[in-house]
Structures are given as structure tokens and as C-alpha cells.
Design goal:
Shape: globular
Largest sheet: 5 strands, antiparallel
Radius of gyration: 26 Å
Structural class: alpha+beta
CATH superfamily of one domain: DD-peptidase/beta-lactamase superfamily
Order of helices and strands: HEEHEEHEEEEEEHEEHHHHEEEH
Number of strands: 15
Strand content: 15-25%
CATH class of one domain: Alpha Beta
Distance between the termini: 51 Å
Length: 434
Amino acid sequence: MNRSFITPHSFILLSILIIVNSCATTKSFLGTRKIDKQVTKQGIFSEHFTGIAIFDLSTDSWIYQKNASKYFTPASNTKLITLFASLKVLGEKIPSIKYQLKNDTLLFSGMGDPTFLHPDFQNQPTFDFLNNQNDSTIIVYVSCEEPKKFGSGWAWDDYIYDFQPELSAFPIYGNIATINSLSDSINIDPPLFKESIEFNDKAEFPREKNFNYFLMKKETAYSKKQIPFITSPLLFTHLLSDTLNRKVLLNDSIKLNQNNTLFSVSSNHLYAIMLKRSDNFYAEQLLLLGSQMKGFGWRTDIYRNYIINKYLKDLPQPLKWKDGSGLSRYNLVTPISMVTLLKKIESEIGFEKIEQLFPVGGISGTIKKWYSADTPYVFAKTGTLSNNHSLSGFIKTNSGKLLAFSFMNNNYVRTNNDIKESMQYLLEFIRDNY
């Protein structure tokens, strides 16, 4: 009869393993309890719906969850989904136009590139390409179809604000008119709109709803306004003709037989501006670009479903993804799924690239005035709509750990600063204690 005996040596080893395991479990439990205590201490989080998910990438384990599997309105956290989709579909440079050179005629159509003649981008490869055509070449803009100008669930009365320009197949100047008022004179860019502005003290809005007619009050002298203009293929050709100083024709009845693609600026450059400034226009146009690259035309609904089914089927809770920017309140996501998405982004590009693209606490973007420290510790995207504020990204702790987190607040009545101050307190606690 065989018997197994525990020697004194093996007993000591077994005891050590039990103690270590017990300590690890206790430490994890105490960690969750400590965070819960801090969340409770910030009583503001009990006044509205708050969701928190925190994941330790170094140990591949969750360290805290609160309402983490419940759905929230993410606002501009939606741009992180758009970023991930773009990383999967777009290359190192942004596709700008499809073109065909046939005899003495250049035919081209837009792919949704938002950088064309945009002041954010001094380098303009597409403009240079068009501008360098022979004087004898006939330049024709081919426009057979245009995308929807506004996203699902957007507020119609935001048409006058620069955070909601119209979407188009080939944006120009960011689809925004920039007006500088100087006493009784006005400068406008693009200058084609010069005859479409006037001073009017009775004006309630800076632009007529259905016309590119701009109204300025005299009290706004020495001010700068950026106002979206109403887009159309015909207006595009007029603006381009005025800038190129040569005739550009419009044709909406032919199709390009060749698929030559001209690329413009660095994709990373565009991603960084989109995330740091939380630029809605860039985010939406990136969806259009991705849809074009996958052959879906302007059907961003098909494109979003493609991304979800191919790359995001493993999210703990499925996304309700309705636009690229987060302007729509129809978007819904859980903190756990958002953290899972962040893990995918980190796996795709690495944390060094994330440090370059994401807003950095106390240094850049929408968190430049928040989460500051001698050593940056928060790298995250904000998301804000009225009564909603979210923050999702990464924390570098004092112990050297890298945490992915999503912190969502919906339906509060306090000020945004009240929410941010309490969030900052909690994130500093996590940085200092883990």
C-alpha cells in the first residue's frame, strides 16, 4: 500500500504558498474596498449614475468595477471607437481623392478627406496635385452622391456652431467660414463669402438657417467667429476655382473608370488632433473615409456594423454605435466594454504611441487644465454633453503599473467642474496607492 507523506520541507513550502496566495487575495479585496471607500467619500457620485471600470494591464486583471456592465452615454468617448476602426482600416496616410487623367481632362472625386485647405495642415499634397496640373488640363469634379450632412440624433439648432460642421464628400476649409470683425469692416475666409455678410444689430443668429448669409452685430467688432457653411458640390467647385484661380467644372453624370487614389497627410497627425481637441468634424469624416476604403460608399451604418462584427464581437456588452464623434445621444457603451476597447488599442499601437495621440493630463488637449502632476499620469479622452461627462484612457501609477480605465457619469445636475474635481481626487488616489 503506497502512502504519500508531507515532509517538514514540503510543509513549509506549502504554508508559504498558502500565505502568499492569501495575501494576494486579501490585497486585491482590500484594494477594491479602499477604492469603494474613496468613491463613497466623494458623495457626489451617489447623486447621479456613475460607472467605473479599472483594469491592470501588468497583471491582466480587473481591480475595480462599479456599475461597469451598465450602459452609459459616452459622448466624445465615442471617438475612441472611431480611432480603433481607423487604425484597422486606414493606412499611414489619409486617402484624399480618386482620380483619372484622360487625355487633357483630370476627373476626380472626394473620399471624405477633412484636411483639404484646412488651417490645421500646412502640408497640402492634394492641393499641390491639383494646382500643378497643366494650364491646358480641364479639371472636373465628379459628384454622383453626397453623404448625409448630419449624424443620427444630432441637435438641428447646433448648425451655427463650429463643433458641428456639415459632412461632405470633399470638405474644403473644414466646411467653416472664419469671420474677423474689425470695427465696421469684416474679413472672411474663404473670401468668396465676402459679399454674403453684413452688420445687423437685430440678428439673432450669425447665419441664416437655409442660406450662406452671415449676419454680424456691431457689438461683435474686433471678434473672431467660425461658422459652418451650407455645403454642396457646386459650392465646392466655386470655392476651389477661387482658390486655384482657374475654372473647375462640376459633373454629376459620369463615373470614374479608374481607381487611382491620392493620399494626403499623416493619419497619426489627424488622429492626434481629433483626440486632443475632441474634433467632431474629423471624427465623422474618418468614418466616411473608412466606409469609402471598404467599398461601402457613404453608408457609415454598414461600415460601423462591419467594424463591430469583425473586430468587436468579443466586447462584454455590445456597442450601440450611431456616429463617429459622440454628438449623438443614441450612442451607448458600458465601462467594461470601453476598457476592453482600450486594451485593443494598446495592443494595436503600444503605449508609446498612445502617449503621442491621447490628451495628457496637465499638458495637452481637453485635460490640459486637469490631472496635472510633475510626472504625467493620465492619458485619456474626455466625453462631455450636457449633464454627462466621461473619461476613458490610461493611468500610470507611482509603482510603475499601467491601468486602463473608464469613468462615466450620466444625468448629474452639478457643474462639470464639480464632477471633474471629484474624479481627479479619485484618480490621484489610485495613482498613489497602486
